[in-house]
Sequence to fold (936 residues):
Amino acid sequence: MTRTQIRLIVAAVIACFVVAPVVLNPFSITLMNYIGIYSLAAIGLALLTGVGGIVSFGQAAFVGIAAYSTAWVSALNGYSPWLGLALAILLTCSVAAILGLVTLRLQGHFLSLSTVAWGLAIAFLFGNIEGLGEHNGISGIPPISIGPFALVESWQIYFLIWAIVGVVLLVCYNLLDSRIGRAMRALRGGNTLVESLGINAFQIKLVTFVIAAFLGALSGWLYAHLGRFVSPGPFDASMGIEYLMMAMVGGAGSVLGGVVGAAIVTLLKNSVQDYLPLIAKGASGQLEIVVFSALFILFLQRARQGIVPLVAGFLPDLKLSRPQPAAPLPHREQPAPGTLLLKVSGAQRRFGGLVAVNNVSFEVRSGEILGLIGPNGAGKTTMFNLLTGALRTNSGEIAFAGRSIARDQQFRIARSGISRTFQHVKLRPRMTLLDNVLLGTYSRTKTGLLAGALRLNQAEEASARYEALRQLERVGLGEKPFELAGNLPLGNQRVLEIARALAADPTLLVLDEPAAGLRRQEKLKLAELLRSLRADHLTILLVEHDMEFVMSLVDRIVVLDFGSKLCEGGPAAIRGDVRVQEAYLGGVA
Amino acid sequence: MTADIAAILAIDGIATGAIYALVAIGTVLIFTVTRVIFIPFGDIAAFTALTLAALDAKQLPGTVGLVVVLACMACVMEVTSLVRAGDLRSVPKAVFGYLVLPLIVVGIVWLTMRFSPPMPVRIVLALLLIMPVAPLLDRIVFRPIADASVLLLLTVSVALHFALVGLGLLFFGPEGVRTEPLTSLGIEIAGVQVPGQTVLILLAALIFSGLLLLFFDFTLLGKALRATAFNRTGARLMGIRPARAGTIAYLLGSLMAGVSGILIAPVNTIFYDSGFLIGLKAFVGAIIGGIVSYPGAALGAFGVGILESFASFQSSTLKDVIVFSLLIPVLLWRSLASQHSEEEVEE
Fold:
């Protein structure tokens, strides 16, 4: 599919939505209105859960805060609904920011459990605050007015709702295709990956969380003024899981999935309400939730991917054009060959009683390839983690380019010019090669959230895309920049990681067992690539097991054994060293 | 607040805490063995209370219908998967385990009911009837996705809770129940009147957690369960089937939840949907113990009970808000205290 074809489809869909109120009966229009309102909350959740990997059961609480805010402003105090909107957004986003600051450092299921907790706590509040009508709710909410026109009829507010949904979809697509959006899409790869790219993972999580709450706020505001009545019921825990269901059924990874999911769940719910009384008289209200939960469980068991990605799989691929030459991104000045770049002095790391790295000191000089080797359990990986900030030293000093980094967070170390790769490849398999490498340019670009969402910084984006393509070509993967990273063989995945690291324009490249699991041919090609990087004055530190690979490649070697440095020197000297032979082979016959 | 009131609140809190502790221990048991955060345990407790109330009123409890429906579903699923795997020889055993055994339990209850059995027998019947529910749900809902991430299992578990609440209304109806007290005696400790029911609750909590401890330490089955909790793959290599260990964990957990339901029924009015709050509060206790430690979970549950008791004295409407808000600092403290490896990645 080309971009023109997509624009035509979008135009046709918009035309359908414009004509719909003329064709549809009032009941269907009301149904459409609710679908639109739920879509907004579900899109927020699709961003948070599907894209960011944070499963939240609390979205309904955000919708509720907004609905109650605007009800309080407009029904109880008689101000304009637009003032209600302002308060709804302000309050919802503030609550989200505070909750996010407190809870987003939690990991995995602990984070999700916390959303259950505050979701419930907020839902209980609605029913128990005297000023908010307790369990009776607030009625008499005025309709939204645009100028002198009050949106009383359901077809009138229909246009407002779906215009907002349309704008939100567009902005979300832009956002996900921008610098911050790519960082959001990387979140599911885990903190270590995200931070290694110079991205402050916590900040990105917080931003995603607040955006989700913001969309919930829009939904809640419209909800209050559509139904003209709010009560605690529609914002309780079961609605929280219904939103989650909408986002996941639609296809949690895609924002359009939010709309599709909201439509399916709402229509299904409607028909369940129509037909259940025929089967079981009297108990239909509760059977509804049984049927729903059962369907959701079945869905989670059988088709976790969701509908939109499933359908998209059958559509022809979007034809994307290769990035064109553009102004280069800012470039770091490489230090003169031979200057001291990294200095580790007396580094020590203990795990309980075990000293994994004990008083290790070595230096890396600009323009060299240094190999860090040692038998299993020698402390190589721990040393590597200390260098990149994944672990803290217990004592000792690590200085990079004359500045101490021993206490820095991972993303700060990455930004100061140390790029790394991973022993177990950490790529985003569902993102293209180009997007994966674009992640590397994060620390060299500046586009903020709004600029990205509104496509205001296309010049920088073009430069970043061209830079990413250049790095792909540099490592020999420039042929198919729009291939999905998950489709590459392991050897090329490692090379892709190197391209991503290079896109950050590092002074020091640290590679964690780059040859592990590679075939001989792939190893030779990798060595060739690393040599060409050295020729470009890049400094490389590699931790490696494979002796042949190391010996033929590196300038100097540091040998670790049982956490301590055994010796260091050129490959020939190390090969002849009796202590090294003893450590590796258990004594010389 | 005077010292007297504080003492009464504390005693009340300890009693509530003991009930939460039983459910919390069950939750920890299930989580460590199967990695499922089994939110519906509170529902199991509430269903037990409703079952007992129905037996007291000489009615056929709704649990009978629930067990029969679940047993049929589980049996069909198990047989289908066995047939697909070509393992026809195991079919009779599966039919016996998943269909006949639960039906025998139902039959026993049905027959015994005709003789208007005394209270202790009714309690045993209620427990017998509730015990198959969680293992059957495990077979139907969790077994097909046993290897999924903790997060997905949690999502399914939350959905399952809502399904159970709906089924609860269907099988038990909307009326609340309060069973007759197990004892009317009371004792006086240091000038404060302690109801016999409270003493009973505490004793039961101690006895059942003690029994569980003995089971883990002194029986081969208990050790197999601990091994599965510690390392599933390792346990499998030693010939322990994780699925079977899961079933046993669910049975034991249901017993704990069932006992707590029976203990709470004379104190609080129980509705079909009362389980959610019991379960979640027990769960807050379990999280305080990091959902891996039994003593931690029990202590946490007592803490929640006492907090709830004092919070309801201050503001009865906001006590739940206070209890659930407490979870956030606790979670934060837990996550800072424990070293996490890299989180699971799911595509």
Remarks:
- Chain B has 14 helices and two strands.
